[in-house]
Structures are given as structure tokens and as C-alpha cells.
Write a structure and sequence with these properties.
By secondary structure, this protein is α/β, with parallel strands linked by helices. It is built from nine helices and 19 strands. The chain has one domain: L-arginine/glycine Amidinotransferase, Chain A (5-stranded Propeller). Helices cover about 25% and strands about 25% of the residues.
Amino acid sequence: MTVPHQSPYRWPAEWEPQAATWIAWPHNLDTWPNRFENVPACFSKLVRTLAEVQPVHVLVNENCRDSATAHLNGNPNIHLHDVPTNDCWIRDYGPTFVQRVDDRTLVGVDWKYNAWGGKYPPFDLDAAAAETICKTIGCPRNQSSIYCEGGALEGNGARTLLTTERCLLNPRRNPGWSKEMIERELGRQLGVDKIIWLAGDGLEGDDTDGHIDQLARFVNRSTVVVAACSDADDPNAASLAANRRLLQSSTTADGEPIEVYELPIPRPRMIDGVRVPESYCNFLIANGIVIVPTFRHESTDRPAIELLTHLFSDRTVVPLDAFDLIWGLGAFHCASQQQPEAATAVTIGRG
């Protein structure tokens, strides 16, 4: 749907130059019941890989500073900040950074946050983190009036946004808000003219009500990869096929047809009787690289890496094992938030 709104902001695409990445160090044992022991090492690999190409700022609680220091010590591109959190999924509660159109200065959008519709209290520390991050780097903060998570939003840097109905129209997030009202707020905050709404049935096992960063991602302004399933008996198959068909019939805000490539999801994997939502769409773009989650499924890991290597021909694709991480129901995109470059440098308070 076209959004009839003029905004002073533009949300840069993830592949545009970045000043830094923000991470929250894992510490909540309930996020990975009985399987937390391997998670800090996974985060260490993620942070150290990012630190090879750009600064990484890591939020740490008092109870996990020693863990973060032990895993990350000695890298001058990694900076720890004493900012308390409830959980590690900073994509969802961290600021969505936009640029002012007139001078490209940075502004942080602070969405209201209630842990995916109140599923996992307490979430007060996470809800306060965006404001703290904006103060840390000295950038203005726009406080939005809607409940929204960063993983629910996918943009092409050119006024086109992908999201899902099941997430943003969920009454546990935005009761009383119509689709048109939410579109106006998204247009105002992100400078988008066109919003493509997927129905939003999330992957089986996903607890976010259908975050877009598990389902469909832009790789350039008019090309999208979508999670796909070739097994007709898989509960995910029908909804993923519907997403593909909708995107194949869509255009960008500039009127360009959207080219769609499929990223097949792995075969079902159960942990303690629960299917984990494994998706290669949860890749993370940083300066010169694309970090791709792998799940020890050779039949789908390799084709996903090959396709993304083809589509990101100007970047190095870095596979990282997310076999243990995904038990927390998220992967590398969920666990990170990019800070785009701005016209003027920002001052970082070192933790």
C-alpha cells in the first residue's frame, strides 16, 4: 500500500556504509533452557567477525561483564557498555537508526516495546535500552507511538518497506490501531512511501508473530530472498509459498518489479519437543561482509551460502554456526542492530 506522507527521514538499507554494530551480551538462562553453555562462544564469534570490519558496541549487565570480557578481551574495535538488559535480542528493542534527508544526521527511532506482545516479562530494561544507546552516541531520539520490533521491519533504502500483518496488527501490540494508522506512523518515522504487507504466518516455532527478518529480506533495491519450503507436508509450506507469490507480483516504491529468489529452510529439527525456526533469511549485513547462519544441515546450508554469495557478489559471505543459538528462537540478525554512517561523526561514551 502507498503511504501518503512526507517524512524528513530516510531509513538506510543495511548494505549501506555502517559506523558500528550494537550487540547485547547473552545472560538470560531462560532464553536457552538447559543449553546456555555454548551461547557465549557463539556470540564471541559473531562479535569478533564484525569487529574485523567495523566497531562493535556490546551492552553488558553486571552479571555478564566478566563473561563478555573473557570472550572479547584484547580487540580494540570492541567496546563494552554497562547497560542492563533483560535479554539479548537487540534488533527488536534497540533504536532503528534513520538519517535526516536534508543533512544525513543520525536519528534513533525508539519503538514502544513489550517483548513480542507481553510474552516474556520482565522487559523494562530492554524497553529503556534504545534511549540509553541514543544518549551514548549523542543522537536525537524519536519516540514512536506504536509497539514495534526491529525484526518486524525490512527496508530497501529507497522508500519501500516489508512487514507482516500478523505482527504489527496484533492486538497485543497495537489494539485499536488500523492498518492505515500504522502505515502513517511507519511512513513518518522511516520515510517509506510503500509498504508491502505479508500475511505474516511465522515459521513454526517462531515466537515473534511472524517477524519479516525470518521470512523475506532485500539484497538490493529490487531483489528479495524469501524463506521457502519444498515439502508440501511441512506446516510452513503454504504460508511461505503465499509470501513468494505476493512478492513476485509486487513492485517497489519506484515501480520496479521485485525479483524473488528462494532460500529453502532446513528440514524440521526439534529440541525438547519444540521445532526451532531455522531460516537463512536471518543473515546480517555489515561493511563488506554478510554473516549467514548455518544449522548443520548440509543439504540446505551449502545452497544458501552459494545463493547469497551469488547475490552479494561484492561482499564476502561468512557462514557462522547457529546450531545452538537458534534454541533461543533467533539468529544473527535478531541479535544485532546496525548503526549507519552519518554526515557527522558521533561521540561514543566508552564503557
